[in-house]
Amino acid sequence: MKQQFNILLLLFSIAGFSQFKISGYVTNSTQQKLSGVIVHVLENNTETTTDENGYFQLASVPKGTTEVVFQRTGFQTKKEVIKTNGDDIVLKVMLLEKEIHLEEVIISTLYNKIQSQNVMKVEHASVKTLKENGATSLIDGIATIPGVSQISTGNSIGKPVIRGLSGNRVLVYSQGVRMENQQFGEEHGLGLNAAGIESVEVIKGPASLLYGSDALGGVVYFNPEKYAPYKEKSADFEQSYFTNTHGTSTTFGVKASPSNFKFLLRGNYTSHADYEVANGDRIINTRFIEKDFKSGIGYSNSKISTDFRYNYNNLNLGLPEEDLENSGFRNPLFPKQEVVNHLLSLNQKVYFKNSKIEADFGYSLNDRKELEAANEIALSMKLKTASYNVKYFVPKMNRWETIIGIQGMDQTNTNFGEELLIPDAKIADFGAFATTNYSWNSNVLQAGIRYDNRKINTSTHGTEGEEGYFEAINKQFNSFNASLGYKTSLSNSLSTRINIASGFRAPNLSELTSNGVHEGSNRYEIGSNELKKEQNLQLDVNLEYKSEHFEVFANGFYNLIDGYIFITPTGNQIDGNDVYIYTQNNAQLYGSEIGIHFHPHPYDWLHFTSSFENVIGKQGSANLPLIPAYQWKNNIRVELDSNKWIKNNYASCFLNYTFKQDKLSEFETQTPDYLLVNLSLGGTITIGKKEVQLNLAGTNLLNKTYVNHLSRLKADGINNMGRNIMLRLNFDL
Q1: pLDDT in the model for residue 456
Q2: Which of 372-376, 477-481, 660-664 has the lowest mean pLDDT?
Q3: Are strands 197-204 and 218-224 parallel, antiparallel or unpaired?
Q4: Cα 163 to Cα 68: distance, rounded to the nearest angstrom
């Protein structure tokens, strides 16, 4: 593995230091200069904005063919394709007025195109918007995206669910590398804080072509914040307060791009007390304290682009149990978890005349402990993961764009505590893929193929025939996967996407090796080293209609999974605990997401959005577990005119209805329906020469007593959080 890293890094060291720049002016159709236009270079993900004279300048632009996107609210997004061998370029760009949302540049797919040009439908949301809408955490925010839910444990722990699939079937990416933190477990969170994250993208459906094993159900891709524009610097401060948990969140950041070099630093400290349910009771030991630090340093010129980032996250969280004596206010009680994540990433790009090489290298250390008392560590695991992802962008041939690449991962799990959930193990992944994109007129066709190999080796532990015994295993899982997608515009306003893709997942260590009582579920679980890989095939159909004042979308999917792994009772008991074994059978999931966005003329300040989502999971005639209930989400948003003192004002009212979930697996109970009413308002206030962004949001304003079907506390009769008011302010220093 080290040799592979050294060879690849040596490749990227062969680069010069020449540079050139792009500059120019942006106007509207009447030649009026436009300020505040976002100018985004897709090749190296840098951007700037036009000044009051409509002028912009970008240095360190890659040689060869470069795509530059111009965006401003109220105008059509425009893309300019430029070609240069190193000479400076001056552009004159005109944007046409149109009242539509900005089109996002999608980073999680290979071709980094804007949404309207993407063959695969990818959900995109800015973290700023999620916060404005009242999200108390990162996972809480992404669970508002259609087709996405979360398996939660109180206010501090959540794992994403995409169209009914979760755990190791959903990959999480941050800083361009995969997050590895024992995804098989639902009793700990992502290990990510919203501070320093700009946006999130969600791929719903098989993404094995892009990411290999464990992307069978989809990918949640977090984009880190961008560096400051060229020759600019900034510092900002953000403070939030949450009434329900008496929670506080403090964030400070600084960044600058004085030359070709650029850097950023951001720190966050978050503290929450126990959350309160609607009847006024507090759920003891749902408190947590989180510390997060992110940093980055980058360099770019016309031949190379380098971005090195580091993220440290420390989460100290309580585990709610019966008969706990409430003491203190914020410090978690025992039992509790202490989870520390270190994530280092390096993104390196080398530009040639008509092609480029891009690579992501990552290293993560996940240190997870569960403590029963002050000096009693029941569980301690360290997971070390090194990964690489190298792609070569073949020179474009007419309308063809082709990418070939390799990916790999080396992982080691080591136990240090008295209890073992899984044995010491080593996992090695290798994958190779090729994909091509062909576009003509208003049509785009995309296809790809991939091969993957995963090796799993574990150590023997314990005494054969007794609880806690793990037999050594040495297994390999291989898979070929492919995808085919087509997008076309049926008219100026109507477009459709059709995608069919396969995916796979190798069984995780818990499924292969379990032999003992799982304390979180009070059952004796037995794994099977005879389990085969999961293999699926999913069909996705997307239809979108967009006019100046009305938008509608409809997504439908059908997912067949061969060898779906699940846990089932044997009817026996060991030491008074029911025995469950892991086995597998075929399964199917299907459902839809449909929605509208209406902003009528001449009342362009008024926006109404509504969406409905559903998923059904079956294994023969039986229902799959952990399937989210149907949801109907509505939002009325008013955007007010700016004046001398207040600008960018808005007010939103959310009416979110969750249907009764009565399609139950063998281990589940029915969950009643409920309606949540949320409110959010805010704007930017000018105090002297300082602009302060204020946001006030209220969730569950009617103080409804409810429980989400995917809450892990539901089995203990514990409801979700009651009314919560959040106040947030942000300003530049």
Answers
A1: 96
A2: 372-376
A3: antiparallel
A4: 34
Nearest to 206 by CA among 196, 214, 198: 214
The pLDDT of residue 72: 85
Q: Helix, strand, or coil here: 199?
A: strand
- Residue 307 CB partners (closer than 8 Å, separation 6+): 296, 297, 298, 345, 346, 347, 348
Question: Strands 425-440, 400-415: parallel, antiparallel or unpaired by DSSP?
Answer: antiparallel
- 210: three-class secondary structure by DSSP: helix
Both tokens of residue 725? 């008011």
Burial class (CB in 10 A: 0-12, 13-18, 19+), 373: exposed
Exposed, middle or buried by CB within 10 Å (0-12, 13-18, 19+), for 214? buried
Q: Provide CB contacts within 8 A for 397, sequence distance 6+.
A: none
Cα separation, 49 vs 42, in Å, equals 15
All domains of the chain in start order, with CATH: 1-100 (2.60.40.10), 218-732 (2.40.170.20)
SS3 (DSSP) at 638: strand
pLDDT above 90 covers what percent of the chain?
A: 57
Confidence grade of residue 16 (pLDDT, cut at 50, 70, 90): very low
CB-side neighbour CA atoms (13 Å) of 590: 8
Q: How far apart are alpha carbons 266 and 359 in whole angstroms? A: 25
For the chain, helix, strand, coil in percent to 5 are 5, 60, 35
The C-alpha atoms of residue 157 and residue 13 are separated, in whole angstroms, by: 41
Per residue in 674-733, pLDDT tens?
999 999 999 999 887 788 999 999 999 999 999 999 998 998 899 999 999 999 999 999
> Apex CA 722: angle with CA 716 and CA 727, to 5°?
135
pLDDT of residue 285: 93
Are 23 and 56 contacting, i.e. CB atoms less than 8 angstroms apart? yes
Q: Note the pLDDT of residue 11.
A: 42
Catalogue the E-assigned strands of 519-658: 523-526, 534-546, 550-574, 577-598, 606-619, 622-623, 631-639, 646-658
Angle value at C-alpha 378, between 374 and 383, nearest 5 degrees: 115
